[in-house]
Amino acid sequence: MLISESKCRDIFIFTLRGRIDAVTAIKLEDRFFTIKDNGEKNFIMDFAGVDYISSNGIRTLLVIEKKLAAIKGRLAFCSVIPNVFEVFKMTKLDSVFKFYDNQNSAVSALHDLNAII
Q1: Which residues contact 43 (CB under 8 A, 6 or more apart)?
Q2: Residue ranges of domains in the chain
Q3: pTM here?
Q4: pLDDT tens per residue, the chain (117 residues)?
Q5: First to last CA, the chain
Q6: DSSP letter at 9?
Q7: Partners of 43 in the beta sheet?
Q8: 7-35 pLDDT tens trace
Q9: Residue 22, SS3?
């Protein structure tokens, strides 16, 4: 899995490419904690290039969500392809996580939520 990083306003964006499995989920989790520990608390995961997610990948996303909730941070997903979104639906996580069609709509939504706080 390749991880590209960018920032838009007060939101940190991970653009992911490839598979999120037992090996790559650890890489994502480690990178997340490094960025979070530097003070970031609002994240978008762009899944446009993700073609597979394993149970280990799902576990990593739940860990990330839990850590962000503890610091009143936010996590959103965008550009999730249908077969990967099916995994979120099967695990009922489509009602836990926030999903957006593209990066721009995810950034706008998170930015609007942060303005309310």
Answers
A1: 11, 12, 13, 14, 32, 35, 64, 68, 73, 74, 75, 76
A2: 2-105
A3: 0.93
A4: 999 999 998 999 999 999 999 999 999 999 999 999 999 999 999 999 999 999 999 999 999 999 999 999 999 999 999 999 999 999 999 999 999 999 999 999 998 866 544
A5: 34
A6: T
A7: 12, 75
A8: 998 999 999 999 999 999 999 999 999 99
A9: helix
CATH of domain 2-105: 3.30.750.24
Residue 114's CB is within 10 A of a number of other CB atoms, namely 16
Edge-first strand order for the sheet with 42-53 is 2-8, 11-20, 42-53, 74-78, 98-100
Q: What distance in Å separates the CA atoms of residue 97 and residue 65, rounded to the nearest whole number?
A: 8
Distance, CA of 98 to CA of 77 (rounded, Å): 6
